[in-house]
Amino acid sequence: MTPPRERRQPQRSCVGCRTVRAKRELIRVVRTPNGEIKLDTQTQKVPGRGAYLCPDPQCLTRAVRAKALERALKAPVPDEVLEELARQLTAQSAGPAETGSVRKSR
Question: How many domains does the chain have?
């Protein structure tokens, strides 16, 4: 009898650092068909255009600075979404992390 085959894990790239990781390891930000931008943290199945970030506050800072999230979602990202994402990443990061503001530069 042949051994069971391992299922392939879907891979996605972080828009901040461009590292390829398993989809489940990343946080998804989605622009829904009606134009709302929100986090898709639980199911990763909310319909719409998605962008993925590593669970690292530095990746968010890089993505905001380079406007990679806006480019990936093809829409401006509201400050409220960025602040919620920063809070979530800071809570998830292991060890002491800098908790700086991630405001968009205009």
Answer: 1
**Sign, CA torsion 58/59/62/64:** negative
Q: What is the pTM of this model?
A: 0.81
What tokens were used for 65? Answer: 């600075």
Please report which confidence band the pLDDT of residue 97 belongs to, taking 50, 70 and 90 as the band edges.
Answer: very low
Q: At what angle do helices 79-92 and 57-65 cross, to 10 degrees?
A: 150
In a domain, 3, yes or no: no
Judge whether 84 lies within some domain. yes
Q: Produce one character per residue of 77-95: b if its CB has 16 or more CB atoms within 10 Å, e if not.
A: beeebbeebbebbeeeeee
H or E stretch covering 30: strand 27-31
